[in-house]
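USER:
Class, as today's exercise, take the chain set out below, and explain how the chain folds.
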Amino acid sequence: MIVAGWLTMAALAGTLEVSDRSEFRLRLPGLVSGRPSLDLETDPDAKLTLASSRTALIVEYNPQLVSWDMNIVGLHPVYLNRGNARAEWHDEHLRLSLNETASYGSENFASLVLPAGTAGSPPPVVVFPPTTTFLYESSVTTLEAKWTSRRWTLDASAAYQLAGGVTAADRGILPFQSGPCATLEGDYSVTRLDHLITAATASYATFAFAPNSAFSTAGVEAGLVEIDEAWRHSWSRTTSTLLRGGASEAATQGVSDTGIPESPPAHFETDPVAEASLRYDVSSRNSTGDITLDCRLAPTINPLIGLVDERIGGVLAGHYHRGLVSLRVQAAYSESVPPSRLTGVRLFYSEVAATYRLSQAVSIEIGSRTLWQEPTASAAELALAPRNAVVPIPVVQEVGFVALILKADPIRF
């Protein structure tokens, strides 16, 4: 059935989209103490879509070229290859897709740019590694199936993901992690305004550290299973809420709560999951927008150490479009619980940006990003930490940026 659909190549219609975003930014603190750093980054993007009535093939290449600290070290650009390929087939009720996203090259998180969130949700903020350029690679391969009927939507996905430093030295900045993950979700429309959502997720990751790390021979592994139930209600055409509750079970091996290597067997931890969110959509004759407020208690795997960390926090995100002007804002706060853990982290992140469209093809954007990150443990507790313990690195970073966005008219064939 799927093969037959792909063989009807004559029915495919193609679209080529080309764009670029170039950003000039100022960072404080910079490479040298007391001096700001100036960076220049450009992100071209080429996206090819071939589609028929039931099939689609999407190939996208969006590399990143950055010259870091150019006011101090001169113009020395580094390159990060990024790409995505997706094949999709669907009929009236079923949609099947295979997606691959990969990157390889020089990476630095000092720009404070977050990866995109899923399903329109705000981007996640977990923890930031040291703001240093290093060789990075990542890959996520995902097989997904989605079935819809009048009342039911069933979504299942299985993926294998890997990310981290390439060489031994690079893994001293960001350890290399790899492993599978899976999601199963059922959405039942009880009424036109109410939905019950049952979800189960599972992930497993192994970690590879630098040879001089205390964890290089510890065999760090982390597994996480989460099951929850949610209720989404639409109060009006513009306002909806979601309440979620559940539980998670985590297994960690090779690292303890104090951030030191730990011999097998693995230790287990059961944590609650809770979420409450409010979304308000703005829609009028001349403007559109949305505001989302989300508060969540849930575990996450810390990518710097491989420990499952229970977090409590909230996100406020919004978008507004009126005429030629667009605004976006995000503010996020999260904190490990209990805060006395030596590996616990507390952070605040924000981004504010305004975009003005000069023409159909040209826009300019100005904005700022802020990061504040520190350990949750007190100074007295950190002073008593074992010498080989890995604790979060305090980071305070301010970024101001101006961007030029170019977007060509799509080419259809």
